């Protein structure tokens, strides 16, 4: 089991890097492994992550074995603690989502209009969290609070943190967020027609409740 979890993390980490969804040595992933959590290590590009070089944590974030975990492991630990149905968390510095996170005039409870059906189904509700320095665990309480309300968070001046029932579903949602943020900037200043509440409600019946949190 652990072997396939490790292989999954490596496959998705390399995919995120190869497709330019995060840059440099930014971005990190976590997946439950039994009662523990496997997370990508600190100081390593997602393009170079190896199956035998992942950090193993207790569910409370205590380091068990492997290299030192990413400084942002507490984000993953908090998300997984507050969302028992989630098994994986993906965090990147994807450029359009990060651009959205720096806008001054933005509603923290509704930072991005639902421009597409897939955004409605895979992301649903997005919450913008207040700024905290990278790796500063003071953000833990805010992440916990937001995680109880939804699986898709956007860290102010930073990037998205998205949980899912598995790694591929979490990545799908993060990519949908990134794609919709790109659409938002492409159409900025134009009149757009986001999905209506009725249209979003109709999508809800098609959505796996584990995957999304209704707006
Ligand atoms: Zn980060």
UniProtKB/TrEMBL annotation:
Residues 196-215 are annotated as: Disordered. Gene3D superfamilies: Class II aldolase/adducin N-terminal domain. It comes from the Bacteria. Its EC number is 4.1.2.-. Keywords: Lyase, Metal-binding. The keyword Metal-binding applies. Transmembrane segments: none annotated. Residues 7-185 form the Class II aldolase/adducin N-terminal domain. SUPFAM superfamilies: AraD/HMP-PK domain-like. One of its GO terms (molecular function) is lyase activity. Pfam families: Aldolase_II (PF00596). Residues 205-215 have a biased composition (Basic and acidic residues). This is Aldolase. It comes from Microbacterium istanbulense.
């Amino acid at each position: 089991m652990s072997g396939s979890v490790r292989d999954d993390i490596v496959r998705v980490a390399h995919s995120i890097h190869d497709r330019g969804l995060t840059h440099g040595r930014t971005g990190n992933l976590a997946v439950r492994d039994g009662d523990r959590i496997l997370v990508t290590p600190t100081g390593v590009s997602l393009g170079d992550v190896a199956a035998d070089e992942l950090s193993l944590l207790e569910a409370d974030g205590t380091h068990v074995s492997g290299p030192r975990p990413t400084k942002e492991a507490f984000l993953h630990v908090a998300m997984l603690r507050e969302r028992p149905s989630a098994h994986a968390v993906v965090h990147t510095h994807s450029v359009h989502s990060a651009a959205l996170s720096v806008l001054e005039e933005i509603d923290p409870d509704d930072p991005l209009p639902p421009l597409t059906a897939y955004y409605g189904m895979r992301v649903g509700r997005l919450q913008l969290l207040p700024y905290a320095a990278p790796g500063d665990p003071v953000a833990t309480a805010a992440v916990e609070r937001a995680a109880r309300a939804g699986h898709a968070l956007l860290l102010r001046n930073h990037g998205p943190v998205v949980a899912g029932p598995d790694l591929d579903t979490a990545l799908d949602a993060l990519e949908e967020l990134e794609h919709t943020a790109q659409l938002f900037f492409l159409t900025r200043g134009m009149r757009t027609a986001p999905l209506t509440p009725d249209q979003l409600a109709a999508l809800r019946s098609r959505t796996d409740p584990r995957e999304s949190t209704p707006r």
